[in-house]
Amino acid sequence: MNFDHGSLRAREARAGKVLGAPAGFVLMILLVLILLGGGVALFVLKTPFFWLCLSGIVIVLMILYYTRKELVPVPAINDGEALNINNLLSNDMLAALPKNPTVRDLAAAVAKTNSGRFMHVRYGISPQMLAAIAEQLTVDVGPIFQTAIKIQQGTDSEEIHGAMVGVAIIANHPDNEMILKKMRLEMVDLLDGIIWFNYLNGLVKSIGKRRHTGGIGRDLSFGYIPTLEKYGQNISEQLPAKRTHIHLASHKEILSQMVEIFGSAGRQNVALIGPEGSGRTTIVQAFSELLMDADNDLPRGLKYRQIFKLDAASLISSSPERGDVEGLIMRVLGEAYAARNIIIWLENAQLFFEDGTGSIDITNLLLPILEAGKLRMILTMDRQRFLEISARKPSLANALNKIMVRPANQQETMKVMQDQAPLIEYQHKCSFTIWALKDAYRLSEKYVHDVEQPGRAITLLEAAANYADVRTRLVTAESVQEAVEKTAGVKVFSAGGASADDKSRLLNLEALLHERMVDQEEAVKTVSDALRRAAAGVRNEGKPIGTFLFLGPTGVGKTELAKALSEVYFGGEKHVIRLDMNEFVTAEDVSRLIADGAEDEMSLTAQVMKQPFAVVLLDEIEKAHPQVLTTLLQMLDEGILRDVRGREISFRDTIVIATSNAGAEMIRGMVGGANGGFMVGADGAATRKDFTTLKDNILNELMKSGVFKPEFINRFDEICLFKPLSPEDCLKVLDLLVVSVNKTLAPQKIAVSVDDDAKRLLVERGYDPQLGARPMKRIVTKTVENLVAKIMLSGQAESGATIRITREMIEGELGR
Amino acid sequence: MFAFDLAKWWYAKGWHVFFADFKTKLRDTTDTFSIGELVRTLFKPYKQIGTESKAGEPGLNIFLDKLISRIVGMASRLVLIVTGLVVILVEAILGIVITVIWPLVPLLPIAGIALTVIGVKLW
Question: What secondary structure does DSSP assign to A120-187, as a single string?
């Protein structure tokens, strides 16, 4: 299969490249004007050369017409003949190819085409990359063209444009899978890109095409609607320059149903019921376009019908009294009925069926109209509100022709994003890469609530456009992540993995946690391992990052570990969502746990909705009512909790930590010994086997005694046992407390040091095996902090000084 | 070669393209003046005036209201229909003339050169 440089299409493409360029067009127009001027002058001068000018004008006009109608672009010949590359190559490819092209020439030609540039910007297939691949290929152009033809057939394309040739070059590379993997792409993504380009190309071509919308006399036989025009919004008159494209098969089906319902003699109403963001508005817009286009095959009674949107809030605000609103609505509906070409659209229709701020219950007024079916109406509302209204007003629900609008799946959402991208790009002067679209879907599933797909992903895509790379105006996966981080206040790890900083932090997590924690090696390691697994993507995405049950006596560091985790992993203690479960001791408290954020901003679901990237700390979990624990099972298992409004709140980016003192006595009894501490091995440390056995024994005891049910215990990824602190541990706690005092004093450039024998005295006086580290904090406040305060106030310590605390000073504070 | 390609296109595909454009233009004009819609609704009341039934109003008044509305409607529609038909007629004549002289257009430059050589003056 060879390229024929001298074929008619190739010749025409090269001619079109010159004549179809703006400069060529301007030149021809200038020539016509000059010849016209010359012709007039020669005509006046009565010379026969006038005929020459006339001939010249005719020639130029013929060339102009030929250029416009044939050369730009040269159409593909796809009429069922044997497939031939010379008939199928696109205009710009034909013009860019030299005689006897090599694969390198093909790669270079691709870079000069619009589709080649499209693949470069959106898929990262640069001219350099294509040239390098072409350099490595051992095949000639024949197999490349054959692959391109297969791609053209597979993507149902009219012609073979540069992008297809580029993809064919990659496909012919023996290591194409590896090349694409490095770019986080698959061959199917590139084919999808070709379809995306075809779609955008089709849009550009359709811009010049005229719509047949009825003309100037269309509405002469329809009635006056002054009130409706004042309070309603004519959707049909706001047809966008770009047609509304319906990509979802289910939505196309809905449009057919609407045509059938409004085209038949039955009740003339349609209730589109579906969640926000699922495309209800798009369907209504597409329906209005369908009706306004004479080229569509529609029942005659539906042609040129106009859709008017009614807004409850504006109707209410324009009338001071309830009776006035009802009167106004009657006038509006009366006009719509009399006009005979109106379809009324009640957006958020629930606002017309309930009393409240911005809503009014006019069921008694609308029901007879809906039941009679004379006035055409479209109602859109979400499913939950429809169910509520149905329960209250079954006759209303029965009067409606209900059509359910379901949310889009991933593939459909990608198509809708590809459709919407040009509009957002135009508004923000940017370009979306395919990775931005993919991440917009992935991250919107996690972080965008209240709306459904495809609305979720579109919302995020629009936000990401504000974070386009300043230099290239490209919206990348990083732009989408930044948009999520800025708008949702969360930390997002890219699909490509954690950043270098994050990696280093995760690898040194134990050391970082021990900057605040003393001992509890087992718990620290267990938690650190879980977080590393999460960051590396080796975890179940359908669950929280980690779920831990911390068991141990009071004052041993359970809460401190949760706070340390929040600081190290999420960047601050403000990312701790803490609930004291002793406030949830009755079954009725479940509703408080999952309350709507508008009513209780401190409910668990409301807090996680606001801050989905956090440590959820459930303190003293054993005190919660069993019904509360049952409610939490879904959160631990699937990373989701439904709030009172039925919304799914994601806990999949939280670390859930439940702490409990239950079994503290058992732990003390089991781990307590002559050394006042832990079971120790030969090397003086507790062995892992001992620890596991101990943990099993304690859990068995807790389950036997009914403190926790087995199904609750089993939902946790790990159960961490916190051992009581020994006096040696308390010495380390003391060091951390002194570090903390020094941090507080740092702005005043004053430091504190505590002598070793003073520390030992503090531990002797402060250590209480029942209360762990808590008394140590109190004794440091009572001694060290008091001493420092006195010294500073007495002027004995100046900036840069170090205050030394001795045993005698402590004795002086505490008494001998 | 370019001249040959142009001439070949002109007498084959170009002629079809022009004719298709001509048909599209006529259809666009018909749509602009809403000819089909106006003919279909020629006797309908103007802007639905007089079609509302008013309680207590004498039947003759209602009938007269409707009649006047229909007459006004018909008149306004006829004005538009006639205007549209005139425009369509002009376009059609122009289109037919060009379609007929289409094959002669490439010969015009040759004729022009011949007339120059011969030295023909218009006046």
Answer: HHHH---HHHHHHHHHH--S-HHHHHHHHHHHHHHTT-SSB-HHHHHHHHHHTSTTHHHHHHHTT--H
